[in-house]
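pinging the channel bc i need a second pair of eyes. not urgent but kinda urgent?? the chain im working w is below, pasted from the shared doc
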Amino acid sequence: MNTPEELTRVRSLIIDMDGVLYRGNAPIRGAGEFLDFLRQMDTPFLLLTNNSTLTAAQYVSKLARMGIEMEEDKILTSAEATAMYLARAAPPGTTVYAIGEDGVRMELEKRGFVLRDGADVAYVVAGFDRRFTYQKMATATLAIRSGATFIGTNPDKTFPSEFGLIPGAGAILAAIETATDTAPLIIGKPQPHIFELALQKLEAEPETAAIVGDRLDTDILGGHQLGLTTLLVLSGVTDAQQLASSSLTPDLVYGDIATFYHAWRDAVAVQN
């Protein structure tokens, strides 16, 4: 049994979803079995996604449709992290222009923010939005140029679907940044805020936690910055060619979650 030394110190796992557990609505082989094994071994884990389109409850339903059972409290989204950040910066009743889907809008409303469809707001919060239009970009631009604070849920330029890579939240943020000459404050990966929230929920220390992700520029970079063990899977955005040409080096690389599952099972056997 040849177990990488990096895995022997890991006690908690932060696991990305898009490109790791599934692509679009299609599960990736081994995802359900791996998560079941973590439960059986009482291994603390959290699903951490930059995708802001759904609430945690909606992700539970999405996973269930793929045959993967999940508890709501084991999911943290960039939409929730953004709303939590904003709740510490501004009081309930603060006005927000939101570009995004249910995840962004519902998390903001849950914390008492007032969503407006005009430019007279204190904040512009933008995430992945499959109904993004020129009018939405214009409203956001007018608001930011009038003094609204520009916040982005995550910088992911692309999004892994069952059809291939499609534009992500980062593409929307780039359009608004170009129109306003204002860079957004990013809350999601690779920024430390969302990783710190994840570690708090896990009650874990960086030295004994690992991030399993498919993106070098968010999962791996963010994990490096906080001192987590970084595990890259090649089933999503990053392929072997991109990895070879990148200056970012994960601690370990696996073809997909099924391959990592086998390695993790061996590591658990060594630990026990």
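so The mean pLDDT is 95. and Residues 257-271 form the longest helix (15 residues). — does that match what u expected or am i reading it wrong
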